[in-house]
Write a structure and sequence with these properties.
Two copies of one chain form a homodimer.
Chain A: H1 7-13, H2 38-41, H3 66-81, E1 85-88, E2 94-98, E3 109-113, H4 127-142, E4 151-155, H5 169-174, H6 180-184, E5 187-188, E6 191-195, H7 196-202, E7 221-227, H8 232-236, E8 240-246, E9 248-257, E10 261-262, H9 274-292, E11 295-297, E12 301-302, E13 311-312, E14 315-324, H10 327-347, E15 353-362, E16 365-366, H11 369-383, E17 388-393, H12 398-402, E18 408-413, H13 429-453
Parallel strand pairs in A: 3-4, 3-7, 7-18, 8-17
Antiparallel strand pairs in A: 1-2, 2-4, 5-6, 8-16, 8-18, 9-14, 9-15, 10-13, 11-14, 12-14
Family (chains A, B): Belongs to the peptidase M20A family.
Organism (chains A, B): Aspergillus nanangensis
Protein name (chains A, B): Beta-alanine synthase
Chain lengths: 454, 454
């Protein structure tokens, strides 16, 4: 278990990270030395996963669990203390709004992410983005800095889809991609009597406001700070990722059918061995992806429960996850995989049959050039050009949905070994603070861009 | 469900199979037209598996179940009717003995197999061998034919190992390969309160005679008629397999360890993907086996239960079953697999680690040349040389254990599509009768060989 940092210990960690003597925007926002991101490092809110080493930082805070309700109430208190207007929509999304000095009716520049985690998740994925947003609002308030337009934060409900199985669930409803009834009807994977809606009601987070970009709380922009969840920043020694968009991806499930047969009595030439064929298919998909600079991954493979050492399996299913920043490449990789799978199915023994289903098809996303520019300016000023890198998000995020309706981008910070969705997920305190400072400054830049434009 | 054949219908099936006008030994044993193998085709003894088509012949008769006790009592009645002496040993193995005219103390020439089945098994695997043995004894009796030496049948307990998990269990005890206490202590896989010994006692089949080739019922020879359980006879259009021995085989389990990682954010070059490596290993083991004319099969592969489409698995386990009639080749295939697995583990990304265990190591068995010669003479006389083929048993059988202590061989008959351990397992009535006739004649030949020798 991580010992909760004392206020002093935390401050001692940061003096070396002195963001406050820089010119540019920081003349307006004196410093971030009062960072309270420690709240996010503080495991008292939510149930941290057990069996942790000192730098393990696991968290188990499933969507709309009691622990999630607890952190939501805490967040509501914190934004109220800052004088924000808090709106909660019909999916429980929390929108906290700080009025800008123009008192414009233009929708707010939002910073958002999510507070829910995987059952054995970390304390950075999503959480860092919300806590950093809160810290930005606090820092502005403490320094008497007022943006021109309204700014605020969003806590999106059920990003993980771990308890109610739909990821980026409520930003999807907000963006009109998912009907609200379908989202409300999602059932707890461990207790089918419980729905997402019944838990919203139980905790008092079923708001009145429509969950909709057009009829509910509109956003003028969306900035999301997030751990990279991959090894690129760590391995390249960069500090900040300027995110250009999100990869397209497709999830397919293949079923390979053969015939069960005795392994001792059936010559290789007489077999229809679906596991041998599936193995060759998995290896082939990897070769195809390499050829195109894409990703192809099989995470799940299953044989029937009565499979045994001395029986050729009757059937095998496996998943295939194909990703690339360009949809055209995703399509090409899929086509070439299917061609090579068909050849493999014919090739051995008496041949096997295979079917496939397309389970998810998520198009590639290009983020907003204005938002990206604001992040780039902030990031390069903070750490220098050589410590920044343009990146494409490999994972899905709420920002993918917000980008359909408002200028959006993301900022990535390194996480140890690229590990995420795991209790060992870890982002150094310096990187949390650096990302938060970049978020603060990017929002200020963006606020100025649109002020200048209007 | 197969409608039970009426006595008449059964006899009508067989006239075309007229074995009774042949010369050689059959002058002594007029005919097999009174075949009562129908008992074995008759599903009233034991619980046939459900959902059967007309030619499906499923059987669920787990070792020492009530159904197994019922068929054992029936078998005891039948051999008593023939005037046999029935001995039951401490593993419930049933030895029925018909005295030869020499009244020699030489141990009997036995015909044996087993009456237990897999939970969703067929009605031929094992059962055919015991029913054919009974039919041989009946046919000799009806025709007044007496062998020189004693002949008899054996019903071996728990050959399948499906309920009490050890296959060829009681022939293994008899051969001294398995301590009797270990076999007695085997627990019902569905009810750990029940042991093999407690079920022997409950049904009255715990005999007094030691289960031992040396201190219990000794055997002078062991002939076993069995369905091939593979496609070689069917596909080559042969009728009878003259079995030379049993393949050596080794069962290994491999554990490949990598690191779980997000499929969207982890470049291929940064992965330790155990499922990709395992897939390549399975394909490689097949290539190695092909090169050596051996068999290598993976029946089981497992990823952790929390595996998901968008996560590289942390660990994969898979089984490998290597077989060849020569132990040296089994060893070579294993060595070459291990070499290629090590190369695969190093090859990709950051490399994975793998461990392996040797779970079973069964040496190749060479059957007795005298027994083989007796079967060959019988088989070639019955169907002609071109319809016979020398074979190696791919599966394990009780005969593998008896061959350690007495001259042994087996006779194979075709089964449809090579399917076994499945309700669709099917051996045509003509083939059942042909195999039984071959068994009868082989035993008579063998009895003469040893009479001539002694």
């Amino acid at each position: 278990m991580v010992p909760p940092l004392s206020e002093n210990a935390f401050h001692e960690t940061y003096p070396s990270v002195s963001f406050h003597n820089r010119k540019q925007t920081t003349v307006y926002v004196a410093k971030l030395s009062s960072v309270r991101i420690k709240d996010q490092l503080q495991p008292s809110v939510g149930n941290p996963a057990s069996n942790m080493n000192p730098t393990d930082t696991g968290m188990a805070r499933l969507t709309l669990s009691d622990a999630d309700a607890q952190v939501r109430r805490w967040l509501a208190d914190e934004v109220h203390k800052l004088g924000c207007n808090l709106q909660i929509d019909q999916m429980g999304n929390m929108f906290a709004q700080q009025t800008g000095h123009l008192k414009s009716s233009v929708p707010m520049i939002a910073m958002g992410s999510h507070l829910d985690t995987q059952p054995r998740g970390g304390r950075y994925d999503g959480i860092l983005g919300v806590m950093a947003s809160l810290e930005v609002l606090r820092t502005m308030k403490e320094n008497g800095y007022q943006t021109a337009f309204d700014v605020g934060l969003v806590n999106w409900t059920n990003e993980e889809g771990a308890r109610f199985p739909k990821s980026m669930c409520s930003s999807g409803v907000w963006a009109g991609a998912t009907p609200i009834q379908q989202a409300w009807d999602l059932r707890d994977i461990h207790d089918s009597n419980v729905t997402l809606r019944s838990e919203l009601e139980r905790h008092g987070f079923l708001g009145d406001i429509p969950c909709s970009a057009t009829e509910g709380v509109a956003l003028g922009a969306h900035f999301e700070l997030h751990i990279e969840q991959g090894p690129i920043l760590v391995e390249s020694g960069r500090s900040l990722g300027v995110v250009q968009g999100a990869q397209g991806y497709r999830w397919l499930t293949f079923t390979v059918q053969g015939r069960d047969a005795h392994t001792g009595t059936t010559p290789l030439s007489a077999r229809q061995d679906p596991l041998l064929a599936a193995s060759k298919m998995i290896a082939a998909s990897n070769a195809v992806a390499k050829r195109h600079g894409a990703l192809a991954s099989t995470g799940v493979i299953k044989v029937p429960s009565n499979a045994s050492t001395n029986t050729v399996a009757s059937e095998v299913t496996f998943t295939l996850d194909i990703r690339h920043p360009r949809d055209r490449v995703v399509q090409t990789v899929q086509e070439e995989c299917l061609e090579s799978f068909a050849a493999i199915a014919r090739e051995d023994g008496k041949g096997v049959k295979f079917d496939w289903t397309l389970d998810t098809d998520s198009a590639a996303t290009q983020f907003d050039s204005g938002c990206i520019e604001a992040v780039r300016m902030a990031a390069e000023a903070l750490v220098g050009k050589e410590k920044c890198v343009d990146m494409t998000s490999g994972a899905g995020h709420d920002s993918v949905y917000t980008s359909r309706w408002c200028p959006t981008t993301m900022i990535f910070v390194p996480c140890r070994d690229g590990v995420s969705h795991h209790p060992e997920e870890y982002c150094r305190q310096e990187d949390c603070a650096l990302g938060t400072q970049a978020l603060l400054e990017a929002v200020i830049h963006y606020d100025r861009f649109i002020s200048d434009r209007k």
